[in-house]
Amino acid sequence: MNASGRGNTAAGASRGGFRTERAPDGRYRWQLKAPDGWVVAITSALFETPGEAERGFDGLRAGAAELTARITHVRDGIGWIWVIPGSRSLPEVRSSRAYERYATNGRFG
């Protein structure tokens, strides 16, 4: 992890902060981890390079004050997730896992 709290790859860092990881198709996505290593958010988008993933994350952070999250039922399976819709109402960011009950959606809820 560097001084900004960012690691270049998921394998290169052990705790919290922003990470990029390689998807099975060879492209990249980002994830945000809590200081205890718990993945709390992942991007739905795939990027061609780690730098593009980082710029996508930075763009999301820059507009954070205008973002609205919503809680929705998962499509395949049982549970609830939170999402931040992006363009064309596709999820820009989502929780890293589904929660069993609506009232416990979110790590701290």
Q: Pairing-aware structural class of the strands and helices?
A: mainly beta
Q: What's the order of the H and E elements?
A: EEEEHEEE
The major pleated sheet works out as:
7 strands, mixed
**What is the typical, i.e. mean, pLDDT?**
75
Radius of gyration: 14 Å
Shape by Cα distribution:
globular
Report strand order across the widest sheet: 1-2-3-4-7-6-5
Assembly status:
single chain
Poorly predicted spans: 1-13, 105-109
- Total helical segments: 1
User: What is the strand tally?
Assistant: 7
**Beta-strand content:** 25-35%
Q: Which bin fits the share of residues in helices?
A: 10-25%
Intertermini distance? 28 Å
Write a short abstract of this structure.
The chain is 12% helix and 31% strand. The chain has 109 residues and is mostly beta strands. The longest helix is centred in the middle third of the chain and has 13 residues, at 50-62.
